[in-house]
Please model this.
Amino acid sequence: MLSRTADCLYWMARYTERAENTARMLDVNHQTSLLPQPEEFLEQSWRKLLTISKLEDAFMSKYDVLNRENVLDFMIYETSNPSSIVSCLFAARENARVIRGKITSEVWETQNTTWLELQRILEARNQADPSRLLEWVKHRCHLFRGVMHGTMLKNEAFYFMSVGTLLERADNTARILETKYEDQASLKALRAENKADDEAGVDFFDFYHWAALLRSVSAFEIYRQIYSDQVTPKQVAQLLIFNKQMPRSLVCCVNELIPLISEMKNQQSKEIERLLGKLKASLDYSDIDEVFSQGLEEFIEQFLERINHIADEFSNAYLIPLAVA
Model:
């Protein structure tokens, strides 16, 4: 397959997944921002979302105030932000247009219809409800993947799309978990300074904080099925890192990547297989107690560094030179 075609397939799927995951991160932040909490924590929470995406400088160059409304505007609508939902859906549709002959008509129609519907949404953006819009984005991205799995041959084109999806998903699950864990730790520190806070109020916020995080990765019902008790940070992290049956867990993404790369062997793929094997082994032979003793933030940072290195190696081996996210 030509590297240009492979590049478009890979980035079409990756940008679609990025749009969905941006919607998920914004949704959990939006939902938790509606709960009673200190004003300084609220601003810090939105700032952390920009920082984890490495977009704080770009945001501050366009907006004077860091608040919920401006961050939502920047992360949903701003075309100068390459990670905004509008930018991602546009890029996904453009990549699909370039390689229409390599995808089914159903996959193309799904991408094109999503873009056309988004234009109607943009015309009424001032009246748009953020929660409904973010749910619409998630629904359209789910539809894309369902059509992809239901209509495409399981050949090289399908493999490139699947690899793009899984690399982006692993990266974003890690970022969501890191962001919300840091937010919760910051809030606990703020509440500890305020002796007037009662334990019931703290427990109430903690529950909805972690429940919102689980819902942002479609895992709340799954959590209840597995643990059937109160929501705790350690069990949330265990589910999103180590549960092999959880579709968005880190270990599930890595496990699904390995056979895909095996199907796409070339002279340069051996290094990718080696890196994935080492990452799989580190996950298989770790547990949640070890992660928390090391520090969840440090563990996530190491995972992000390794999964993004794998993505770089994949680009070097299969895609056009100097491909830019």
